[in-house]
Amino acid sequence: MKIFQILFLLVLVVPFAEIYLLLLVGSVIGAFLTIFLVVFTAALGAWLLRQQGFTTFRRFQENMALGQIPAYEMIEGPIILLGGLLLLTPGFITDILGLACLIPPLRKKIAQYVIENHLVQAAAGGFSQTKATGKNVLEGEFRKED
Known about the structure:
Layout: H1 3-29, H2 31-65, H3 71-88, H4 92-102, H5 104-116, E1 120-123, E2 126-129
Helix pairs in contact: 1-2, 2-3, 2-4, 3-4, 3-5
């Protein structure tokens, strides 16, 4: 399946699954408690996004000051942003995925997977997606001297 077909299916399936789960949970614990849980996870998401974002940014600055490449921090930043957005989205499925992105050990594992499988590679204008090709690539600059 192509990536756009997968995204299209996710955009269709996830909202229906979220609504079904919200109705199911609401019928078990009541509407008021269900709404409270949705609002609570949104507030928790905003707080975790702020806390984890500042922590990651501080580690990024420390690594830069030491002259080290902050590879994990550059990958963790978008993961934290995605986690915060998922927690702000109403629903329990997105909340679970958002929490997974904002819990530091799980986020570290996700970042490690992304780096080890070469899912993101540095490009001139930022990051670009690439698939692991198995080829060795040597990047650099050259100039012709007579």
